[in-house]
Write a structure and sequence with these properties.
This protein is of the alpha/beta class. It is built from 7 helices and 10 strands. The strands form 2 sheets. The protein has a 7-stranded parallel beta sheet with strand order 1-10-9-6-2-3-5, with helices on one face. Strand 9, helix 7 and strand 10 form a beta-alpha-beta unit. The relative contact order is 0.18. The structure holds 2-amino-2-deoxy-6-O-phosphono-alpha-D-glucopyranose (GLP).
Length: 240
């Protein structure tokens, strides 16, 4: 694992975004694995700046998102489709038809993991961007998820629902299920970039890097990936 610790978050986001920008400059048809949550937002701002100043083009890029809530329509403001369009895609020259996100539509949810896995099997993700949950989840792979799963439907941990309640009016409105790329799908990426800031993430970060590889701390499996870059600030790195 390559650990990068920064004094200033602005620098952290610039450096993490630089990995993506360099990749897309070298490989205009790059396949990016993208994440939601607050952790990648600073990176998305840097990608938008770089595109707007004509340093990089996303015209031929394909993206796969990690996860989506079950039961929110894609135009719900808190769906991950809405999040990605609002925070990134609408500001780039990427073609929306090349941006894939699992569908959380509850009517077809039973077929969706197979559909998404079939799509993914046509590509290899060059770089997967990740955040980490306070319980050590990646994507929505909650503690106890076997490491060898591809895309699947999960029941959200109560801690994850509480953490994400800040985006909803009430805890009751936070969906109870989600669909997520599995840990095996994530591990198939050629390179992984994980971002974690703030003291709330410190214990999960320590367990991910120093702890045993254990399904109860899903991110610990990243110790087995040959090309991982972890971007931390002093607060999230404080227990290392
Ligand atoms: C969410 C997402 C994850 C994200 C994590 C951390 O539930 N499914 O992909 O990494 O929680 O979120 P944040 O970056 O807002 O702390």
């Amino acid at each position: 694992m390559n650990i990068h610790i920064f004094d200033h978050e602005e620098q952290l986001y610039k450096e993490a975004a630089r990995r993506i920008i360099d990749l897309v400059q070298d490989r205009p048809k790059a396949v990016l694995g993208l994440a939601t949550g607050s952790s990648p937002l600073g990176v998305y701002k840097e990608l938008i700046k770089s595109y707007q100043s004509h340093h990089v083009s996303f015209e031929h890029v394909t993206t796969f998102n990690l996860d989506e809530y079950v039961g929110l329509s894609s135009d719900h403001p808190q769906s991950y489709r809405s999040f990605m369009n609002r925070e990134l895609f609408n500001h780039l020259n990427i073609h929306l038809k090349n941006t894939f996100i699992p569908s959380g539509d509850s009517i077809n949810i039973h077929n969706e993991p197979d559909r998404y896995n079939a799509l993914l099997s046509n590509y290899q993700i060059d770089l997967q961007l990740l955040g980490i949950g306070t319980n050590g989840h990646i994507g929505f792979n909650e503690p106890g998820t076997p490491f060898d799963l591809l895309t699947h439907v999960v029941t959200l941990d109560s801690r994850t629902r509480t953490d994400n309640a800040r985006f909803f009016h009430h805890l009751d409105q936070v969906p109870t299920q989600a669909i997520t790329m599995g840990i095996q799908s994530i591990m198939n990426a050629k390179e992984i970039v994980l971002i974690a800031t703030g003291e709330k993430k410190a214990s999960a970060v320590k367990a991910m890097i120093r702890g045993p590889i254990d399904p109860m701390l899903p991110a610990s499996i990243l110790q087995n990936h040959p090309n991982v870059h972890i971007y931390l600030n002093h607060q999230s790195a404080k227990d290392l």
